[in-house]
Amino acid sequence: MKLIECPRDAWQGYHPFIPTQQKVEYLNQLLKVGFDTIDFGSFVSAKAMPQVSDTALLLDQLDTASSRSKLLAIVANERGAAEACGFKQIGYLGFPFSISETFQRRNTNATIADSVERVRNICELASRNEKEVVIYISMGFGNPYGDPWEPGIVMEWISKLSNLGVSIFSLSDTVGVASSEAITSLFSELIPHYPHLEFGAHFHTKPAEWREKIEAAFAAGCTRFDGALLGYGGCPMAQDELVGNMPTEKLVDFAIEKQSPLNLDFAALETARALFLDLVKS
Questions:
Q1: What are 19-62's pLDDT values in tens digits?
Q2: What is the residue range of 38's domain?
Q3: What b-and-e string marks burial along 4-36, b requiring 16 or more CB atoms within 10 Å of the CB?
Q4: Burial (CB count within 10 angstroms: exposed 0-12, middle 13-18, buried 19+), residue 219
Q5: Helix H segments across the chain?
Q6: Can you tell me the distance from the alpha carbon of 257 to that of 260, in angstroms, rounded to the nearest whole number?
Q7: Which of 168, 263, 181 is nearest to 224 (CA)?
Q8: Beta strand pairing status for 90-98 and 132-138?
Q9: Are 93 and 124 in contact (CB under 8 A)?
Q10: Which of 26, 112, 131, 143 is the most exposed place for a label (fewest CB within 10 A)?
């Protein structure tokens, strides 16, 4: 299993501003753990997401040289992508592409049609700057807004976006509505149909529902999973009451149970967990 740790998603909806130096300390500890990727920050409007307004200030203080983990930054438009491309430490640009028109407008202040053009331009920027684009298919398993959803819509957009040069897609259960049937249906169709693409799962979940979601995705061939320590956070643009992120601890336990090698430093992971508890309590 490939684990992507998402501190950015954990703290973006946390209202008291976390001091930059505390974020640096925490991120440097996460870099010691051995996650494949760390979703560490966003180059988005400071007004919309004040908690991540210091993302650019973090980078020169992160010890990426001694870590095997790659850094991923979320961008919502070409301006943010251009800023992120100015940092050699960043390997991936993540773009939230919603297949719900309502949520795409709400999340990025753009239509789906506008977002296709943004992805096209971001892919060109990424290619010129030796970055890779990760598309998060927001509302990938359904939405609460009444917008059309079915597996065929997901397939259609992945086909279109992959033609722009995207090769990594993470299906996002943005409001925690994914059923095991929908998860199985999507990954069972997508993974064999697009063997040249990498698919991941970014689940938000209620505490009692984490296992059925991971189990369904893993059984259907998905081995890339996003998580956040303690299951903290969620998407503040989605609804008033957040459904938390998939707890990284549960992903680790599941991988051990399935005898799927992780190559993590578990002592460093425990230290990171303790640091995060301090960070959100201070």
A1: 999 999 999 999 999 999 999 999 998 888 899 999 999 999 99
A2: 2-281
A3: bbbbbbbbbbeeeebeeeebbebbbbbbbbbbb
A4: middle
A5: 7-11, 20-33, 55-58, 78-85, 101-108, 112-128, 151-162, 180-193, 210-219, 248-257, 266-281
A6: 8
A7: 168
A8: parallel
A9: no
A10: 112
- How many structural domains comprise the chain? 1
Q: What is the CATH number of the domain that holds 170?
A: 3.20.20.70
CB atoms under 10 Å from CB of 59, counted, come to 20
Residue in 169, 153, 260, 244 with CA at minimum distance from that of residue 207:
244
d(CA 137, CA 142): 11
C-beta separation of 233 from 242 below 8 A: yes
Residue whose structure tokens are 């819509």 = 153
Nearest to 187 by CA among 211, 208, 165, 218: 218
Say whether pTM exceeds 0.70.
yes
Cβ–Cβ < 8 Å for 73, 96: no
pLDDT in tens, 66-125: 999 999 999 999 999 999 999 999 999 999 999 999 989 988 889 999 999 999 999 999
Which single residue is written with the structure tokens 């290619």?
Answer: 127
